[in-house]
Specification:
Blueprint (H helix, E strand, L loop, with lengths): L3 E4 L5 E6 L5 E8 L13 H8 L3 E2 L2 E2 H9 L4 E6 L4 E8 L3 H13 L5 H19 L2 H14 L12 H6 L2 H11 L5 E7 L3 H12 L18 E5 L6 E8 L8 H12 L5 H9 L5 E8 L4 E9 L4 H18 L2 H18 L3 H15 L5 H9 L3 H11 L5 E5 L8
Parallel strand pairs: 2-8, 9-13
Antiparallel strand pairs: 1-2, 3-7, 3-8, 4-5, 6-7, 10-12, 10-13, 11-12
């Protein structure tokens, strides 16, 4: 990856990464704002706005937007997270201008009709109900609630029915005006692109966006706690989290390798000991996530209800033990898997665009593939173990569905 970074005079960042031989391009607008920026009374607003802008923008209704991108064989979509919202398109080379123009229309000239808003609220409430019936997804929201209590970072991205219903068209418009500030926006393009042309296009579509007061985000602190959902499902689902690292922490590569060695694949300790040796679970894995100010390390498991407590106790022991005796072979295996995953992702135009945007968000610059691989290769066993030991310096968060596991924490 050999991305080039350019900043417009108003603060919008443009990252371009041409790929020789590519016939298609990925281009997106990545905004460093998500559900954690919402007021509690309007939880779910970021996701609602993401939906609403597709209902009409700059003279096109929802059908016309869909037809405009699909008439050229492209795709246009979006997603919302706790700390980021992205609008992204995949098109052939000649249609890059159309793709970015559509994205600009979505965030800068949405119609947000009152009747459409009420209909879309029904759709999102239905989506919320579906999520509540999917324990393997719901457990993540419960875990964030347990880890961060009543802080904004704890709230589910989808919000709650009452807060979704409370949002108005004016709230949606204000969200875009107040939160989509130039300094929070990254335009990333990769593949069959001409870099200078993309910069000129970005200048035309976003260069007049005015700087303004950017609302601050409440810092988050991992507080720990428990969140138990006693509804009966066929299996028990549980997760526990320990305080992780902020995304830009220098020890993040070491923690990533520790996490992968402990629970990142079929050869990991958690999979081998809990599934292969004990038969306690079908699904168990470790993962981590870093934000600007905090992070978490977590383990998720689905198991029979009568095995849930035993599985969690053993999983906690496995993680603690790995901090003491993680081996060179385990570290090297995790490194090989992470390097391969990184390089394979960067073979795709979408993977490159996403990586550039995330790199700028975290480090304020583009990290090349060689630098990211070098960071992984610089981690030795002592550093990986130290990252694992650091996990146990704070509180623990536990979430469960179908089995109360507070005592196992």
């Amino acid at each position: 990856m050999t991305g080039i970074l350019h900043r417009l005079t108003n603060g919008v960042t443009v990252a371009v990464d041409p790929m020789a031989g590519a016939q298609s391009a990925a281009i997106g607008l990545y905004a460093s704002v998500g559900s954690r920026s919402e007021p509690e009374a309007l939880a779910g607003l970021a996701h609602l706005v993401e939906h609403m802008v597709f209902k009409g923008a700059r003279g096109r209704d929802a059908r016309a937007i869909a037809e405009a991108i699909e008439d050229v064989g492209g795709s246009l979509n979006a997603w919302t997270a706790r700390d980021q919202t992205a609008f992204h398109a995949r098109v052939l080379a000649p249609d890059v201008p159309l793709a970015l123009e559509l994205i600009a229309d979505l965030v800068r000239a949405p119609l947000i009709d009152d009747a459409e808003l009420e209909r879309e609220k029904d759709v999102i409430v239905s989506e919320l109900g579906e999520a509540h019936d999917a324990p393997d997804d719901l457990i993540h929201d419960h875990l964030f609630e347990a880890a961060f209590g009543r802080q904004p970072l704890a709230r589910p991205v989808l919000g709650r029915e009452e807060t979704i219903r409370a949002a108005t068209a004016a709230d949606c418009r204000a969200w875009l005006v107040d939160e989509y500030r130039p300094e929070r926006l990254v335009i990333a393009a990769s593949g069959a692109i001409e870099p200078d042309a993309v910069v000129r296009l970005a200048e035309r579509l976003f260069g007049d966006l005015e700087r303004g007061h950017t609302l601050s985000v409440e810092p988050a602190v991992f507080s720990g706690g428990a969140r138990h959902d006693r509804r009966a499902f066929e299996q028990a689902h549980w997760a526990f989290a320990l305080p992780g690292l902020a995304a830009a922490d220098p020890a993040t590569p070491a923690l990533g390798l520790f996490t992968h060695a402990v629970g990142g694949g079929m050869s990991s300790r958690l999979f081998q000991q809990l599934r292969e040796e004990r038969g306690l679970t079908y699904s168990i894995y470790a993962w981590g996530q870093g934000f600007a100010d905090t992070g978490l390390f977590a383990v998720n498991c689905a198991t029979d209800r009568d095995k849930a407590r035993e599985a969690m106790v053993l999983a906690r022991d496995v993680v603690a033990q790995a901090a003491d005796d993680l081996s060179e072979a385990e570290l090297n295996r995790a490194r090989a898997q992470m390097e391969a995953g990184l390089l394979m992702a960067l073979e795709t135009v979408q993977g490159r665009a996403d990586q550039m945007a995330r790199s700028i968000e975290v480090h304020d610059r583009i990290l090349g593939a060689e630098e990211m691989v070098a960071e992984l290769r610089a981690v030795d066993v002592a550093a990986a173990r130290a990252a694992g030991e650091r996990l146990h310096e704070g509180a623990v968060a536990v979430a469960s569905i179908g089995s109360r596991l507070a005592l196992a924490a």
